[in-house]
Structures are given as C-alpha cells and as structure tokens.
From TrEMBL:
<dbReference type="Pfam" id="PF00578">
    <property type="entry name" value="AhpC-TSA"/>
</dbReference>
<dbReference type="InterPro" id="IPR036249">
    <property type="entry name" value="Thioredoxin-like_sf"/>
</dbReference>
<dbReference type="GO" id="GO:0016209">
    <property type="term" value="F:antioxidant activity"/>
</dbReference>
<dbReference type="InterPro" id="IPR000866">
    <property type="entry name" value="AhpC/TSA"/>
</dbReference>
<keyword id="KW-0560">Oxidoreductase</keyword>
<feature type="region of interest" description="Disordered">
    <location>
        <begin position="40"/>
        <end position="59"/>
    </location>
</feature>
<comment type="function">
    <text>Thiol-specific peroxidase that catalyzes the reduction of hydrogen peroxide and organic hydroperoxides to water and alcohols, respectively. Plays a role in cell protection against oxidative stress by detoxifying peroxides. May be an antioxidant enzyme particularly in the developing shoot and photosynthesizing leaf.</text>
</comment>
<dbReference type="GO" id="GO:0016491">
    <property type="term" value="F:oxidoreductase activity"/>
</dbReference>
<dbReference type="InterPro" id="IPR050217">
    <property type="entry name" value="Peroxiredoxin"/>
</dbReference>
<comment type="similarity">
    <text>Belongs to the peroxiredoxin family. AhpC/Prx1 subfamily.</text>
</comment>
<protein>
    <recommendedName>
        <fullName>Thioredoxin domain-containing protein</fullName>
    </recommendedName>
</protein>
<feature type="domain" description="Thioredoxin">
    <location>
        <begin position="78"/>
        <end position="195"/>
    </location>
</feature>
<dbReference type="InterPro" id="IPR013766">
    <property type="entry name" value="Thioredoxin_domain"/>
</dbReference>
C-alpha cells in the first residue's frame, strides 16, 4: 500500500516493532537464500556517515562471501534494527479520546506504526481504512495498528465520525494518534519541516 501523492510518500512510513526480536534472527533464514543487489544500484543519494563500519554478509553458505558496509549517522539513526523511540500521546479510538504509550506494547504485541500527512485529504484514506478492514487478521498475529498524523484529536474524531462515502474514515478498529507537537514524527525521521 502506498500513498498516491509524492509528498505523502516522502512522509508516510511504517515501522514494525517486535516484542520478540529473536523472531527475525539470521537463524530463521535458510542458508541457501541470497540477497542480490542489481548492478544499477548506486546506493543512497546522501550517504550516511559512520565512524565504525561493520561488514554484513549478503550470501550465506557460498565460498566467496560478498559484503557491504552498514553506515549510520548520529543525526539520523536508521530505524531498522534499532529500538523504536517511545512516546505517549492522545489518540482517538472508538469515538473517544484515549492515551496511547508505545512502551505499553513491548513484550505483549507487535506494533505496526504508520504515519500519514493530514486528516481529510484524499491522499491515504484507502490505506488507512484497509488496515481497519483487515484488523482481525492482524489481531490473529498478535499485532496492534497505530496511525499517526500531526492533526489534533478533534480533527481525528471528526474524520472518523464522517462516513467513508462522504470523504471520511468511518469507525476504525485501531487508534489514530495526534502528534500536534510533531515530536513523534521528528523522532521517527518522517517529518518534512517546511511542509
């Protein structure tokens, strides 16, 4: 699922936080699997800087091991493999205002955390409602869904109280978090300050 607008694609992201980090360990990958990087791949446009590069093997079980260096920056740490920044915020769920704290899910559930630009835009409502429509499938996987935008809880409430046919979301089966201070978006590196 991807947002249709370019600016939304730049600001929208999803993070999967595991309550069992060993569930995705390298031992779960079969030795015959290889990661192939096309020759046309030229790397990052703005390479990240690291003081201590670490080689990572791309090919398991082969005689000649290929490797590349994972680089991280102090200014913008990569989120994959790092501990997700914790937050506590107000949200709208079941037409009520609630408090959500990310750390409450640690060790209990997986979390899909996604960001979208603004309420009442025609950029991502189909993706937002699709998560809700398939909520029971995520529930069976012990996974909670949390949506975040920089709108207020009042805007979120109005959007879920508006019928889908009228440009709203209708009732959602998961919370929409208000990040009016933009602190959550900043900590996850998805905020474009001038937009």
């Amino acid at each position: 699922m991807a947002c249709s607008a370019a600016s939304a694609a730049a600001t929208a992201t999803a993070a999967l936080i595991s309550s069992n980090p060993k569930a995705f360990s390298s031992s779960s990958i079969s030795p015959s699997q290889n990661l192939t990087i096309p020759r046309s791949f030229s790397g990052l446009r703005n390479p990240l800087k690291s003081q201590v590069p670490r080689p990572v093997s791309l090919s398991r079980g082969s005689r000649s091991r290929k490797s590349f260096v994972v680089k991280a920056s102090v200014e913008i740490p990569p989120l994959v493999g790092n501990t997700a920044p914790d937050f506590a915020a107000e949200a709208v769920f079941d037409q009520e205002f609630i408090n959500v704290k990310l750390s409450d899910y640690i060790g209990k559930k997986y979390v899909i955390l996604f960001f979208y630009p603004l309420d009442f835009t025609f950029v991502c409502p189909t993706e937002i409602t699709a998560f809700s429509d398939r909520y029971t499938e995520f529930e069976k996987l012990n996974t909670e869904i949390l949506g975040v935008s920089t709108d207020s809880v009042f805007s979120h409430l109005a959007w879920v109280q508006t019928d889908r046919k009228s440009g709203g979301l209708g009732d959602l089966k998961y919370p929409l978090i208000a990040d009016i201070t933009k602190s959550i978006s900043k900590s996850y590196g998805v905020l474009i300050p001038d937009q």
